[in-house]
């Protein structure tokens, strides 16, 4: 209604695109811009933790997907806010914003499909997930047209699009969840729930105040949960041996990540590093390092 029109514009009929207010534009930009730096740091962390070629490749794929999602989304929402008169540019970025989601989904599965033990049938999902992402990308072009967005984005397009995301997002999960090693299953499902809750707001972006902003928040929660699982179960070394090896290979850069990981992981690594890496100078004395008596 008129009362809150400063924060939210009038609702639009299903065949038209909702025009966000200044506040909503700002919120849409900020929510994803905020995650660009953390995803670069997080991606680098996985890269430095990699012990073999598959881990390195998977770290690259996943990090590019993660950073790509937040960068493209931020650029699109910034252009849509400040340069909306550039209709063609805005429209292209809108399509790229939708396409990058497919590749983000595929990239999110890559570490699990590449680094976990899979059955003979399930291993096909490694490439099938990229085929599905490509089909989704073509689908974006098929439905979009360069004229006025209002006429070209019918309500059923949004429903089809949503269904495509659900299929691409959930089909590989059947494989991942049937892996013999179930570590990380709960985190994967929790992340999936965040995405699903977010989709409600994505679908009805003109029905609630800051709906698209809320969708962005859920995407960030989902991505964060999945990053945690990938880092914790696929990259974090389970033995000190490997952990020291990583420190040896990247002494300077990895030190800060190592400290961060210790603070998050708590006792596990802390105990290990205290006992060996940060060895006390005088391990035999309970009073710490005493000066020899002759010097007193
Ligand atoms: Zn968005």
Automatic annotation (TrEMBL):
Entry's Gene Ontology cellular component terms: membrane
Keywords, in A-Z order: Membrane, Transmembrane, Transmembrane helix
Stated name of the protein: Monocyte to macrophage differentiation associated 2
Transmembrane segments: 59-79, 99-115, 127-145, 157-179, 185-202, 209-230
Predominant cellular place of this UniProt entry's protein: membrane
Family: Belongs to the ADIPOR family.
InterPro entries to which the protein is assigned, alphabetical: AdipoR/HlyIII-related (IPR004254)
Highest taxon above the source species: Eukaryota
Location in the cell: Membrane
Pfam family, any one: HlyIII
Taxonomic source organism: Cavia porcellus (Guinea pig)
Membrane topology, as annotated: Multi-pass membrane protein
């Amino acid at each position: 209604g008129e009362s809150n029109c400063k924060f939210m514009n009038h609702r639009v009929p299903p065949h038209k695109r909702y025009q966000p207010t200044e506040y909503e534009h700002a919120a849409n930009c900020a929510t994803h811009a905020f995650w660009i730096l953390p995803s670069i740091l997080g991606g680098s962390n996985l890269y430095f933790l990699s012990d073999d070629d598959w881990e390195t490749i998977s770290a690259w794929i996943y990090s590019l997907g993660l950073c790509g999602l937040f960068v493209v989304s931020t650029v699109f929402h910034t252009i849509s806010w400040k340069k909306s008169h550039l209709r063609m540019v805005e429209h292209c970025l809108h399509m790229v914003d939708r396409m990058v989601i497919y590749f983000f989904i595929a990239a999110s599965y890559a570490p699990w499909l590449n680094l976990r033990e899979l059955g003979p049938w399930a291993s096909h999902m490694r490439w099938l997930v990229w085929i599905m992402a490509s089909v989704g990308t073509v689908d974006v072009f098929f439905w979009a047209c360069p004229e006025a967005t209002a006429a070209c984005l019918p309500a059923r397009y949004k429903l089809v699009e949503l269904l495509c995301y659900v299929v691409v997002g959930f089909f590989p999960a059947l494989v991942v969840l049937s892996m013999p090693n179930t570590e990380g299953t709960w985190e994967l499902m929790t992340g999936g729930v965040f995405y699903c809750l977010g989709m409600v707001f994505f679908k009805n972006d003109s029905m609630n105040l800051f709906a698209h902003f809320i969708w962005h928040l859920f995407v960030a929660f989902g991505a964060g949960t999945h990053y945690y699982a990938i880092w914790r179960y696929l990259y974090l070394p389970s033995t000190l041996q490997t952990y020291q090896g990583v420190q040896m290979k990247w002494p300077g850069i990895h030190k800060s990540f190592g400290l961060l990981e210790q603070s998050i992981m708590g006792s596990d690594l802390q105990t290990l590093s205290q006992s060996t890496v940060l060895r006390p100078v005088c391990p035999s004395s309970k009073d710490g390092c005493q000066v020899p008596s002759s010097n007193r």
